[in-house]
């Protein structure tokens, strides 16, 4: 055998949970939570200036939401948001963390002399019991393209169980965006796919010649596996704004105070975008998100803060953007209009991963309609 | 949040199973079996000429072991060993595979017109029931440094349940080898570790300056995490024979017909090696394995075949060798003698991964004794 985890050359992520249909806690740990038990990973997030500045400003420019209040931090990780909440004057902060990172968070709380305010609780938010309801729920729950990881489910659960009717959510709102892009990555992936298939055909020939076994029956499933890997898996991207060739559109708008799990189980909609660049290539779509800290209607923020992961020259984030390349690219030009149908569902094998379907119809400024194309993608 | 699986830049493998102390089937699938459900991975193994040739020759140069016999292939994967066994004249072959790869194996069997001989059974060998005992158990169960993956446990279970008293094991014997090596990889890893720590100190300063939180209490656990990752995790290597600077020694010898799980739960021993190169650097140890196809005492092979993963100029394998670098390297020269203590146990977090401890004492040909050093490594 010889599976490849300690061969760094192998970038493939395997996400099957062996067909288990319900969420097994151990499996969920093995596939998901374990990542957050690494300080290395925490450091990556704590070094994300866009992420840090927006939460920092949201808290310290809205101290009235924290002063003498009770706060719940869902998935506190290293404890940074809980510590800031305490520094902003919270009376009590419950910092819940499912992984062993809780021990480091506890040490950090003590080292910063906040042990009288911040209580770190190791456990899943779904399981823990708090002695009181809270005024604020703060959490950094966003995954790639907002919903990957499905962690917002846990925030909703926490909100429904522990937030006072007058309470506020940090962040209070979230949006998913898509926009048409140009990129060389899709071409690269296509050529990677083609070489993988060329290699396969050579492999089939050799196996027949040297070992007397005809492997050609596996060509179709192999090509499907490789298609999924190279052509149907979205890519982490750090897009330059110039790569966005049309207007961006919101495909999902979430009010964190009222959204239910049902509201986010599936994201579906039709949006339109007009090309803003002359004579260019539509290579696919980029997807990103932003979240906002506005407090609540009855208890608004004094300073509204936004955290955006949109393509930016200076302010890139560890989330980057998700790239969904098409094959082949389509020539478009300024004024062309795209009617985009979009649907996102959770992967059957792993509820924290997503499957996305894009449909696109191009109405050229000339009036011609370019036959629409459809593509399915996996966010892994 | 934003964990990194679809960021190919992140090569880190996370292996915690969330502290689950017993082996959870779902977790085991998520962490282990799933890898083998990829045809890409099967192709990697099927393209390993050393692996393929040795099994192919073992079977077809010892047809008397297969002709009109019943065979059990444990972990058949794509089904190649089962198909060869049938082509060598087996009356019946049971090909057991735990993953969905079983479906591809079934298709391959039919495409090669062996459906009357080869029966593919999807399930764990521990769970399946065969209608009869078998004459031969064949399996390619070897992981990095032989025992990683702990798959031999399943072969032992199959043998004790299904092999006739007169039966033979393919392979019949296995050995673990270690040898002193010189390599630049250790220096590289040490400098990677140092840069990671330099980065960390900058991170601690910035977090204090910009965000008012003192992270220095996490410096020790972070450095331990990074030490484990960079300095205590064995590395996949494709060693050139010239990198082996002393005599190789066997640390474990396994008779596949009689070995028990207790025999392989822990591997412990002391071996010696003498340096065979003049004035060189002892940078650590290389570990590899070989297996042999000798049949049994009462029913020996006509042609004994060996599969070795030792350093080689022409015959490298996908297993390569495991590298266990030391810091700092030690100057040694021809005639110096190494007394090496070695122990390998299964990781508490994941029974398919290994923890290794090396101790080494150098008696220089001059008679001087170099203070011994100890190092712990993880095979991940």
UniProtKB/TrEMBL annotation, chains A, B:
Stored PROSITE patterns: SAM_MT_PRMT (PS51678)
Keyword terms: Methyltransferase, S-adenosyl-L-methionine, Transferase
A Pfam family that the UniProt record links to this protein: PrmA
Protein arginine N-methyltransferase domain residues: 191-358
Record carries keyword Isomerase: no
Gene3D superfamilies, A to Z: Hnrnp arginine n-methyltransferase1 (2.70.160.11), Vaccinia Virus protein VP39 (3.40.50.150)
InterPro entries: Arg_MeTrfase (IPR025799), PRMT_dom (IPR055135), SAM-dependent_MTases_sf (IPR029063)
Stated name of the protein: Protein arginine N-methyltransferase PRMT10
Lineage: Eukaryota, Viridiplantae, Streptophyta, Embryophyta, Tracheophyta
């Amino acid at each position: 055998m010889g599976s490849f985890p300690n061969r760094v050359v192998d970038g493939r992520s395997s996400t099957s949970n062996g067909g288990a249909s319900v969420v097994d806690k151990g499996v969920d740990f093995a596939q998901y939570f374990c990542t957050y038990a690494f300080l290395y990973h925490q450091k990556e997030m704590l070094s994300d200036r866009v992420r840090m500045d927006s939460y920092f400003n949201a808290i310290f420019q809205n101290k009235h939401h924290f002063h003498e209040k009770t706060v719940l931090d869902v998935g506190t990780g290293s404890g940074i948001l809980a510590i800031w909440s305490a520094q902003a004057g919270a009376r009590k902060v419950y910092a819940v963390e499912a992984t062993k990172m809780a021990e480091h968070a506890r040490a950090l709380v003590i080292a910063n002399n906040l042990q009288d305010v911040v209580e770190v609780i190791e456990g899943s938010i779904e399981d823990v019991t708090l002695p009181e309801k809270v005024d604020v729920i703060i959490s950094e729950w966003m995954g790639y393209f907002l919903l990957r990881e499905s962690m917002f489910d846990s925030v909703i659960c926490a909100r429904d169980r522990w937030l006072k009717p007058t309470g506020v959510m940090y962040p209070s709102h979230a949006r998913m965006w898509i926009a048409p892009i140009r990129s060389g990555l899709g071409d690269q992936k296509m050529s990677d796919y083609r070489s993988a298939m060329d290699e396969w055909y050579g492999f089939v020939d050799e196996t027949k010649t040297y070992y007397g076994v005809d492997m050609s029956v596996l060509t179709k499933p192999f090509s499907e596996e490789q298609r999924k890997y190279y052509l149907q898996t979205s890519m982490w991207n750090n897009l330059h704004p110039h790569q966005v060739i049309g207007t961006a559109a919101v495909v999902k708008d979430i009010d964190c105070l009222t959204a239910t799990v049902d509201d986010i189980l599936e994201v579906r909609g039709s949006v339109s975008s007009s090309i803003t660049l002359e004579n260019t290539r539509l290579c696919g779509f980029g997807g990103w998100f932003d979240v906002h800290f506005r407090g609540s209607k009855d208890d608004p923020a004094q300073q509204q803060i936004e955290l955006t992961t949109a393509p930016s020259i200076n302010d890139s984030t560890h989330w980057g953007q998700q790239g969904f390349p098409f094959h082949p690219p389509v020539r478009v030009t300024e004024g062309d209009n795209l009617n985009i149908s979009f649907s996102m569902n959770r992967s059957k094998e792993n509820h924290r991963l997503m499957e996305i379907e894009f449909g696109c119809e191009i109405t050229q400024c000339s009036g011609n309609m370019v036959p629409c194309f459809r593509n399915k993608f996996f966010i892994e």
